[in-house]
């Protein structure tokens, strides 16, 4: 099993070599910095072709140089493609899989509809500005990835006819609305960046209602919803297969973390805040949800299903990320009770000034008063970044929490002291990152930490009693005076552009 943040995996060299041997007469893999790619392409007829020309001496792949490969079933191309008038995809009518990335593809788009057998289409980060109007005739299409096609502003209306479509990604495009009839894509499993738009009495959220097979869903532009009733019609709670849900508003936050849109008196638009709160209340997810993201939310209170044990549907949640919460004043009080939560990230929440017992202590205890339930029993990674007004973290020694926490990141806040309960109970903590903590003066008694990274902490003076610490990185901490109780230290990286002499605290250090 990989980590919850893993997006790549490796294949054993022996397995890779065996696969290459078995496919030697059917497949060609040509990677960058090879100057004889064209010769290799012309040497044989292949069923599968994988070309990476990005960063190579070839600069651009000539489209005509691969058109003789009329038997291709799979074509993967990463890097520029040089086209000229008359070039098309007609020669590849047998393709099942087409993956083109970081290339000039717009000139070839119109011939896409010639690929009657195509199942998989990915043209991510190309200059594509349009899709064939009759794309609905490509009946076998199951996968469409348009991520990063910034010039693409519309989906053809016939896309709703692709009954076998399972995957659609339009993140990073200019697409702002979805064709009516989208609800007919009954087999859709993965839908990234569904843009909410209002058109009279019609809201695109209704189109999500019948899509019961969804496992991954990303909705953007939620502040365009004019009534909570439209959110209800999305029927998120009925999608029992849903494992990943991302809820995103339109960005209204400036560099200072505050709302940009204000009324004439400079007061935040409270009516809009109340509306977005009501809208998110209607998005209570199904019980099996594992990954939840909330981005650019500007309500003062988080959804009820995150704040009350009576209605919380998050018992299977493993990953929670909340970013740019400009006006939320408190963290959810049920997180500590979630039995599966492994990763918690909160980025840019400037209204939070205190984290107290409600964050760490369950609302109820076991019948035996001598046994208190452990909070965050499976939390592995915790990241607090950009809580710029956060001054107090209350965690007393008697509060048992985070028994298997391995990685903690604290960045851009005003904490003066680390809570005593953290060092005492987080006995599995291995990696600790402390960045831009202006008022923190000491780090002490983290007995299990192996790697410590302190960056740009203006008032940090003392690091002591870290008996297992092996690697220490200190960058731009000008007031550092004391390093002691670090018997296992093997490596120290020290960096400060204003430093003129070796600090005195290094004189007695043994590495």
UniProtKB/TrEMBL annotation:
Repeat in keyword set: yes
Listed Pfam families: LRR_14
Residues annotated as transmembrane: none
UniProt domain Disease resistance R13L4/SHOC-2-like LRR: residue ranges: 88-454
Keywords linked to the UniProt accession: Repeat
Superkingdom classification of source: Eukaryota
Keyword hit for Ribonucleoprotein: no
Signal peptide limits: none
Protein name: Disease resistance R13L4/SHOC-2-like LRR domain-containing protein
Species for this entry: Panicum virgatum
């Amino acid at each position: 099993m990989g980590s919850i943040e893993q997006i790549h995996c490796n294949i054993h060299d022996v397995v890779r070599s065996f696969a290459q041997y078995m496919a030697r007469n059917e497949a060609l893999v040509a990677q960058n910095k090879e100057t004889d790619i064209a010769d290799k392409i012309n040497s044989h007829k292949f069923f599968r072709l994988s070309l990476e020309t990005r960063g190579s001496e070839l600069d651009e792949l000539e489209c005509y140089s691969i058109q003789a490969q009329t038997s291709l079933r799979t074509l993967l191309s990463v890097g520029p493609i040089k086209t000229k008038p008359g070039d098309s995809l007609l020669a590849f009518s047998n393709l099942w899989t087409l993956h083109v990335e970081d290339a000039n593809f717009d000139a070839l788009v119109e011939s896409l509809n010639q690929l009657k057998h195509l199942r998989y289409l990915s043209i991510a980060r190309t200059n594509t500005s349009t899709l064939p109007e009759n794309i609905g005739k490509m009946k076998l299409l199951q996968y469409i990835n348009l991520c990063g096609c910034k010039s693409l502003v519309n989906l053809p209306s016939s896309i709703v006819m692709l009954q076998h479509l399972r995957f659609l990604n339009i993140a990073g495009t200019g697409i702002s609305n979805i064709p009516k009839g989208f609800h007919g894509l009954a087999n859709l499993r993965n839908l990234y960046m569904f843009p909410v738009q209002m058109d009279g009495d019609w809201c695109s959220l209704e189109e999500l209602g019948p899509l019961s097979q969804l496992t991954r869903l990303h909705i953007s532009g939620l502040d365009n919803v004019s009534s909570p009733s439209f959110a209800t019609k999305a029927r998120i709670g009925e999608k029992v297969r849903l494992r990943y849900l991302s809820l995103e508003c339109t960005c209204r936050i400036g560099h200072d973390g505050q709302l940009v849109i204000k009324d004439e008196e400079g007061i935040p638009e409270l009516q809009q805040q109340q509306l977005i709160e009501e809208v998110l209340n209607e998005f209570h997810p199904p019980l099996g949800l594992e990954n939840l993201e909330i981005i650019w939310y500007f309500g003062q209170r988080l959804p009820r299903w995150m704040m009350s044990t009576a209605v919380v549907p998050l018992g299977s949640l493993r990953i929670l990320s909340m970013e740019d919460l400009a006006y939320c004043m408190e963290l959810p009080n049920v997180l500590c009770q979630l039995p599966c939560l492994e990763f918690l990230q909160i980025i840019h929440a400037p209204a939070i000034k205190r984290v107290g017992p409600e964050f760490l202590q369950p609302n109820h205890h076991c019948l035996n008063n001598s046994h208190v339930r452990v909070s965050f029993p499976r939390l592995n990674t915790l990241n607090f970044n950009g809580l710029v007004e956060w001054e107090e973290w209350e965690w007393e020694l008697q509060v048992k929490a985070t028994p298997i926490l391995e990685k903690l990141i604290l960045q851009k806040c005003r904490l003066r002291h680390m809570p005593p309960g953290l060092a005492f109970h987080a006995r599995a903590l291995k990696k600790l990152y402390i960045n831009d903590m202006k008022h923190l003066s000491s780090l002490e008694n983290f007995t299990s930490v192996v790697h410590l990274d302190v960056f740009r902490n203006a008032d940090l003076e003392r690091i002591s009693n870290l008996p297992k610490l092996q690697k220490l990185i200190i960058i731009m901490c000008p007031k550092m005076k004391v390093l002691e109780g670090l018997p296992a230290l093997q490596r120290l990286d020290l960096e400060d552009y204003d430093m003129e002499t070796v600090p005195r605290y290094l004189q007695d250090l043994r590495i």
